[in-house]
## 1
Amino acid sequence: MSVFSLYWRVLGELRGHAKLAYGLVVANLVLAAAQFAEPMLFGKIIDLMTHEQPNGAPVGLREIWPTVAAWAGFGLFSIVAAMAVGLNADRLAHRCRLVVMARYFDHVLNLPLSFHANVHSGRLLQSMLEGASAMFSLWLSFFRENCASFIALFILLPATLFYNWRLASLLIVMVGIFYLVTALVLRRTDALQALVERHNAALASHAGDAFGNVPVVQSFTRVHNESQALRRISDDLLAAQLPVLSWWAVVVVASRASATMTVLAIFLYGARLHSEGLVTVGEIVTFINFATMLIGRLEQAVGFVNFLFAQSARLREFYTTLDTRPMVDDHPNAIDPGRLLGAVAFEGVSYSYDAKRMAVRNVSFSAEPGETIALVGSTGSGKSTTLGLLHRIFDPVEGRVTIDGRDIRDIQLDALRRNIGVVFQEPMLFARSIEENLRIGKTDASSAEIEAALELAQAKDFVSRQSNGLETVIGERGRSLSGGERQRLSIARALLKDPPIMVFDEATSALDATTERQIQKALAAATKGRTTFVIAHRLATVRNADRILVFDHGEIVESGSFDDLVKKGGRFATLAAAQLLTPESDRADSGEGGRAIATLGESL
Ligand SMILES: Nc1ncnc2c1ncn2[C@@H]1O[C@H](COP(=O)(O)OP(=O)(O)OP(=O)(O)O)[C@@H](O)[C@H]1O
């Protein structure tokens, strides 16, 4: 998108307040005309004062006061009108800034997880704030300055030809030269400005990345290296920025020089025309005022173009996100089936992230309501992708997923997700109170329901130990809680939602043995009466699953109950042997993890 079509789109954002916006444009037109009338009336006053009366007496105040009064009237009107325009423009810009921010916020929250997997959340926040504030400045400058400048340059400047075409031609030549110099500088700086923006983005993303990984930076003693890397980017940024600044300095010098030259030319040419009786002194004064005013407008216009180019990368990034369409969307005939029973079937499902390699290939299985299905297999074998297809993070490229016999693409997305509770590997809690975090599962949950969910999730004790109980605010991503406490809260949250289908995506993999045992109890409660899918690396945790699906390279290579699979002596049996049947070697190999497995192995 070119810079000017970008600007056009930014102005188009005002369409929600079209009446006020058009009113401000008309007010600008009137204001620009009044500002042009002032020098003309001033020139008239000079002419009246220098015009001798027939009796040779000097012109008195009586002869000139109506013109002076009109001049003062226009001046006063301009001040009041400019104030009214400024105030309303300010209000409009503030209102619209909040509107576009809210639109961006809603849109980003609706974008699929596959989009969020590839974009840094800090970058999205920055883009929302910077994009909206760039728009705010552009709207404000449009109504306060650019609209009046546009009218002055394209309507009133040609109109001066009717006033005195000779002096008007000088003004037009000056504006023409100014335009050429600016266009040249824009051409020269276009590529450089793009480079500046690239370095700016690199600077922001490097800093964001480092801030997000402070523990790693400190423990790996990388502070110096990270600072050095930031300085290198800063040096590149400065190297690209300096030539751009030099070119814009050329514009400033050219504008000052052309201002002085134009005033001088009007003065000299005007003096010659005056000696030939072709202009009056008042007209010369009028045109000198015109020139000064136009130069002011041109300087404003250059400042604006410079600002627009500098903001273009931010605006593009803002609109790129806003234009990203969710890959999964509601089918026009999609329905809300209410609460589902939870009979899930995958029928020949395949999915590819990059349209080259299949992450999941021809996966078929079914689960009756209330059954527990475990997905196991080596890392990267397609387990999370398979379950992502169940709650429609993305849609299959082949095959279909059904619930209660209905293709999930025929179910409204909100309705589908209301029926599926997901406990993520990373608990993902909000920097809000424990209660607010739990209520995300069910906004209108009663105190008794909250208590019951906490009890089932084995979370009641630690919550009551918090300084403010349920009111305790748990910090960014729940950092003031331990990993196990966070995980139990996320299970309680899912339990409050009370969906017929539950998905546990490696919910216990990062926990110690004691916590894992507590969470196992919570999981057992959470799965009762629901169709449950569990991704697990520790096979002890899926001992009681109704069916285990063993994944390899995106395909199901074995399926059956724990005992059947162990008896079969295939891939699962090998994995189980490594984890459960040789606890001694595990103990030696993996310390605490080994002990956990051994303990669980014994309990099986
Ligand atoms: N967002 C993504 N973009 C591109 N490829 C992806 C993405 N997510 C996963 N993949 C690829 O798809 C394949 C399956 O990944 P998936 O996460 O489903 O495996 P997994 O069995 O759940 O692994 P793990 O046990 O390590 O979580 C892998 O090769 C992975 O690299």
## 2
Amino acid sequence: MALMPVKDARQRLLAGVAPAEVETVLLDQATGRTLATDLAAKRSQPPFPASAMDGYAVRAADLTDLSATLTVIGEASAGHGFTGSLGPLQAVRIFTGAPMPDGADTVLIQENAERQGDKVVALQGEPKGRFVRPLGLDFLEGEVLLKAGRLLDERALSLAAAMNHASVPARRKPKIAILATGDELVAPGKEPGSDQIVASNAIGLAAIVRMAGGEPVDLGIAPDDLPEIRRRIGWASDADVVTLLGGASVGEHDFTQQALVAEGFELDFWKIAMRPGKPLMSGRMDGRVALGLPGNPVASLVCARLFLLPLIKTLLGQADVEPESEAAILGADLAANDQREDYLRARLERRGDAWIAKPFETQDSSMLALMSAADCLVIREAHAPAAKAGDVCRIIRF
Ligand SMILES: Nc1nc2c(c(=O)[nH]1)N[C@H]1C(S)=C(S)[C@@H](COP(=O)(O)OP(=O)(O)OC[C@H]3O[C@@H](n4cnc5c(N)ncnc54)[C@H](O)[C@@H]3O)O[C@H]1N2
Ligand code: MOO
């Protein structure tokens, strides 16, 4: 049976997924959230023509004759404007950020002025408007500066504050329930039995969810037992996405699919043309998504990056949800590929202007140490012909 191509599977997973609801979030709580609606400036910045330097507010025309002496009639500093008006051959001592006094059009910086008592002499002329920031130089009231779908990072949040928003409309954090399955699993820090290993996938998944702006909901570890897996899926009735780890393959202890269907999810796809990640599965119920990730730890993390991450971004209403890839130079020969699109763990090295991606010789999907040592994934398309070191390839950086 032909396996479903990775791109088709992702398209199907994301089709019809609506963004989560909007909530109002205080700016200092909004880091990493996603803006839900366009945001317009409530004020102009600067709200007045302002000095960009420390010096003297003057009229440029008065500096054409350098023998002229100007009289200092007052002072303007940030937060304390000069209330009067400046006439010919007058100057106001001014500091960075202060409003320009009426009548002044130029700032003479103090390095280019000689002050004696209440008099000041210019050491050089200045063009009109020098060192003056016009009203609205940064932005004008009413301008839409942040678009819906924008990730609220330090730049967006500073701008929202400058626009005089104390809070922003943001998408609710999508709830991503995570259930590990397998008789062999014990939680990190516990003593595994002789046939057991430590469960690692849920920890990595939760990290990806948090970094993407979602809220992980830990459903713990279920044994390979259908009723218990179903019971735990039931705990997640308010989750946007239910993620099951392991049990996705064809073995007699693989219950993921059965459990999801028994809980009312309609299976959308199962098995894709991807390595690692072949047994990936997705289902739907009333707008909620179920994702069955393969148990092999590397497969689980690669699938999370390629499927869960775009899903969370879609739930957050972000625009560019597809995994970002870039060109690099292959650092090793590779054999022709089969029908599964391959995501090879690789090291990245800078050589001159180019990035060289060297896949590890071993690509077993159980090997977390190599996964954590990798800088990127090299993408090998399905049926790609053999490639040589020095060929161009595409990579996804970590
Ligand atoms: N006959 C076939 N066998 C397998 C196929 C196949 O097509 N035909 N596919 C293989 C591929 S590819 C993968 S990937 C695995 C995935 O199988 P499952 O999703 O059913 O995963 P499990 O069997 O439950 O576990 C696989 C492996 O991963 C370990 N594991 C599971 N959960 C965790 C966890 N939370 N943390 C750490 N490690 C975990 C588990 O102990 C197993 O070693 O199937 C192949 N088989
Ligand atoms: O595709 Mo599995 O994910 O080879 O390990």
## 3
Amino acid sequence: MGKAQKKTGKGRLDKYYKLAKEQGYRARSAFKLIQLNKKFAFLESARCCVDLCAAPGGWLQVASKYMPANSVIIGVDLVPIKPIPRVVTFTTDITTIQCRNLIRNELKDWKADVILHDGAPNVGTAWVQDAYSQSELVLMSLKLAVEFLLKGGTFVTKVFRSADYNNLLWVFSQLFGKVEATKPPSSRNVSAEIFVVCREFLAPKHIDPKFLDPKHVFKDLTLSAASGHDKGSSANNAHENVFMPEKRRRKRDGYDDGDLTLFRKVAAGDFIRSSEPINVLGLANRIVFESEEERGWLGLSITTHDIKANCDDLKVLGKGDFKALLKWRLALREELGLDVRAKPTEELTETAEMTEIVDEDQQIQEELERLKAEAAAKAKRERRRANEIKTKAIQRLQLQMTAPLDIGLEQNDVSLKMGQEDIFDLTDAQRGLHREGSVARLIGDEEASGGSEGEREDESAMVEILDSDQERERKLSALEVELDGMYNAYQEKLNERDSKRRVKEARRKRGLLEEWNGIGSTNKDTSDEESNEDGSWEKMEARKEMDDDSSSEEESNEGFAVGQKRLRRKPADPPSNKKAKFIDLYERPPPPSRAAQVWFSRDVFKGLKGHDMDEDHESNDIELASNPVEIQSQHSGRESGRETDDFETVPQYDNGSDTEMWDADGENLVNEHMAHVEKYGLSVAEAVTLAQQLVNRKTTKTHLINDGFTRYSLNSKDDLPIWFLDDESKYYKPNIPVTKEAVVALRARQRALDARPIKKIAEAKGRKKLRAARRLEKAMKKAETVDATKDMTESEKAKQIEALMKKGASKAKRKETKVIVAKGGYKGIKGRPKGVKGRYTMVDARMRKEVQSRKRREKGKRRGR
Ligand SMILES: C[S@@+](CC[C@H](N)C(=O)[O-])C[C@H]1O[C@@H](n2cnc3c(N)ncnc32)[C@H](O)[C@@H]1O
């Protein structure tokens, strides 16, 4: 694959795609297994194979083809796999115990010779699944492999080059005799995927559970290499992670990998004493007052009722609430003597005047020195941070975990943070803010070297002391600025994600008919193929590439990392200018992370926009002015953003208001659905499947209604946080099967619609126009008559003419003719019956019945045709 691949959708129809189509494989990824097997030959001798994450079934087809007849092949995936001869499939999550039990039941006492894993977390499929990273999925598959693999067996897995890569390899090497990482030619160069073939399973009698625990395996490997005793190799790190979890190492950025606990409590004391309060707020769900001392704080006047309520559920707080909590923390720290508030300067000066006569110049000099020392300490602190990030980046580079260009960008990479965006991620935003300043130095100020140990000690002392009111104010406003930055970043991310979701939805609807067959019979829908065969990672990669290529407008709001690229691209900038830009970037409200924006753009924050955000928000508006699209979406909300997008708009139900969001029964939605169905008929394969089942008497209405009452419908929504309900409404849905017949029916309807003669439509339109022109002509004639009348005032004429023209311009209503059944005295009598207004026609009862039965017969004939 020497040539660079095209980035367009068509460009992705490479030779393996075509080959897969030709040879009847459901996904081009089938060739990855073919090539791996060609190199390691593990399928030919295998009698039993389990494919984890197997949909749409490309690998299963290969296994079925290459393995001996009568061998057992099992495929598992979150999504159903269309039947393949000789293959048993299960639809379940490989990380669950249910999956293990299903495989166990199927295999009984057997063990597998080969376990395959080609999984990639499905972004957007389920909230909880999103939280799993690729590496964790690999570890979960390894967990199944060690249980079901025969001694000497082979485990093939897909891993991505990331910080966890080496840790995974190390774990594999502990369990298998031979471990080899390879990238088959059919794996796209743009994809970070690598396949690891682990052979000769050692089948140890006892396997340390830590080997399979993401918490232990994926701990940080940044520092030991940096400290010098293990440069370039991560094996020792992994060793330490697995065997010495008690050793305190620095946390990875972001959430602990493998820490899947969704609810976290934090002691109030920890929050108050923490040097990273925003981090604490970002990670925890609740602040608790459990110790004696903490309970005492509840009685303080500064701990108002609001503060207590805020501590109770951090996940539903708005920006103002967070500010209040941070202020409370500062106040409490002063109360506890953790922060020393220095006496006002004037007071000091006065005392000095009383005790001794101090030279005024000397006083100024001292003050200046104090300020200078303060500034120097701050600068040291920043330098140290910059240095840490630089070391980390270089070390990653050494470990070949990142390309040089990725330095500083990695944390902004959506693909590396899949699934975390919904979780409250202030930490991430804060990290981003620090990094932005630091990375600026990494590029623009190479000579800025790190501080010594001594400096670090200085710094920790500095952190604890607030020198003056001014300092305190500055601290507070810095926190506020940080929060604002995070809010903007979250909002940006939400917008971005929302637009991606809409594009995806639009594509899905368009490609609904093609989706059914994996690689469909047409070339049209490449995106489906993509999603089937390469999982979400490649999609992310591809999107990243497209983002790179896309307009600079997008870049302007991509956060500092992208801005940094732009700076690099402008060598013409004089150095001083460049420095000024960095300083500017550092002092301005820092460009926010997207995660922060997503968080703050939820509905709970809507009310805050006008009040809490006031000036900050305005300034953000100005900053964003370079991007008209952004501005529009900011000012007119999500819905209007949709209108401006350059793709087919999928009808969306307005969920702008809270009442809609809390519409527990979804009545509005149902009504709108019903209206849509009445107007356009069934347009979704699931619905057609159910309708066909009804018609063919395979199910009954009662059955369907009963089926509607599932675990999805009966969950109580009381007291659940909004973010949770929001996510549940998106992802926690029943999986309704779709039949091929339904898809065929839908296709047929689409074809019929397409085939509707254009000529007839044009004729009907022409007739309509003609009628309208006649009506207008008639109205004009009448108007002329009115105008010619002499015994009317001008205003009367004007009124009448206006009414006539209005009537002429509007569509003529069809006059309804009432059918009156002549009964009793009216039978045979001519004349208007009593109480009947407008047009009517008199019929006798017999005639009406005859007409009705004739119509029924005609209708029946038409259906029978
Ligand atoms: C790249 S595709 C596999 C393609 C497959 N090897 C083939 O050749 O057809 C990745 C699959 O992983 C599945 N997957 C992701 N997370 C999973 C999980 N937790 N449990 C089961 N399957 C999962 C997805 O549904 C997706 O079908």
